[in-house]
Specification:
This protein is an alpha+beta fold. 32% of the residues lie in helices and 22% in strands. It has one domain: 3-Layer(aba) Sandwich (Aminopeptidase), CATH 3.40.630.30. Bound molecules: coenzyme A (COA).
């Protein structure tokens, strides 16, 4: 298994993967144009895991100059529980930190208990003191 930076050439493969792993979280911000913009804004931080000649894991990583944010942390079902997610997330946080960012946030649906166990295992603390407010 190899971990490397995501490029826009990966788009079709990762978008197909997200149809399986992350359908609920997909939105307009996942169009090819938006992902290309995101990768250009946060150069070298988003990653893919490659095994058996295909992409089996993804993480979108970036920061706003103050805090890091991670999206679309995902591993194909048949490759789970092999610590691929762990390696992707650890490397993503390392790359965000290398830019001088000392805290990274993730969003996780309340009923996504696997996601919560995963982030907890990586040392992320579940916040009970915050709501997320969003505006379109
Ligand atoms: C969450 C996800 C990325 C984890 O990927 P993974 O490669 O299977 O995770 P890892 O093997 O690195 O697991 C690391 C640790 O997380 C925890 N964990 C992972 N999956 C778990 C599960 N199904 N149940 C309980 N704990 C789990 C464990 O502590 C695990 O360590 P262990 O296997 O030594 O016990 C994967 O399940 C996935 O793609 N889920 C669908 C998308 C998703 O929900 N993403 C998170 C959005 S917030």
């Amino acid at each position: 298994m190899e971990i490397r930076s995501m490029t826009i050439e990966d788009y079709d493969e990762i978008y197909s993967m997200w149809q399986i792993t992350s359908k609920r979280a997909l939105c307009k911000a996942d169009s090819r144009e938006s992902i290309e913009k995101y990768l250009n804004r946060n150069k070298g931080m988003s990653l893919v895991a490659v095994a058996d000649g295909k992409i089996v894991g993804t993480v979108l990583a970036g920061h706003d100059g103050r805090r890091g944010f991670i999206h679309h942390m995902a591993v194909l079902p048949e490759y789970r529980r092999k610590h691929i997610g762990n390696k992707l997330a650890t490397e993503a946080v390392k790359r965000i930190s290398a830019d001088g960012i000392d805290k990274t946030h993730i969003f996780c649906y309340r009923d996504n208990f696997t996601g919560q166990d995963f982030w907890t295992s990586l040392g992320f603390k579940k916040r009970g003191d915050l709501f997320v407010f969003s505006k379109e």
